[in-house]
Amino acid sequence: MDRNTGPTNTEPSTTEPPETARTEQEPPIMPLATIGAMEMTHINAILTKFNKEQDLRRNILKGSEERAAKFIEQNGRNKRFEKDNLLREIEMMTDITRTQIEARRKLLDMTLASEAALVLRAEKVAMLNQQIGESMKDYKEELTECQRTINWLVECGNLLAREVKSMVQREKGLEHYASGVTTRTLFDYFSQEPAPPTLEEAAALGLQTGRPAR
After folding, report:
1. Where are the compositionally biased (Low complexity) regions (predicted)?
2. Quick check: pTM over 0.90?
3. In a domain, 211, yes or no
4. Are 181 and 174 in contact (CB under 8 A)?
5. How high is the pLDDT of residue 210?
6. How many Å from the N-terminal Cα to the C-terminal Cα in the chain?
7. Which domain does 96 fall in, by range?
8. How many structural domains comprise the chain?
């Protein structure tokens, strides 16, 4: 057979009637009811599978939601527990801090009171030192006065010693010249005794006032 010209005249004719050829080549036509039933069965199978998948997805989603709700609830419970613990710790730390602040305030008050007491004591010590200084000055003046008095007493003692010596000499002279001695002889004897102290010497020795001159 030539593709361009079609069948040649050399080939034998094999033409058959059209009805016989159509019956051998085409399959038998199925009824519409059967085709519809088959389609419905297929559609029902697809719908059943889809529904099962939807139920499975719905169950998975429900389980996920339940687990999520449980997790959120447990997490919220844990958060509340942590929050309560944190609040209790904050309260405890606040109480401890308040106690420490109160103790430090008391210590500060005690320190200030001690400082005030030390200041008062220092002032008292300063006053006592001033009084002691004034007293020492008075004591020095009194000591000087006592030294002057002692010197005056020493001078008085020396003067008394001279007077006693003179009296002893007079007594011995009177005993020696008691008998047969003329008045002129006694006058000559007494005129040879040491002269008494002058007014300046007596004033220097404090004989007029009884105390040495200051």
Report:
1. 1-18
2. no
3. no
4. no
5. 44
6. 183
7. 41-204
8. 1
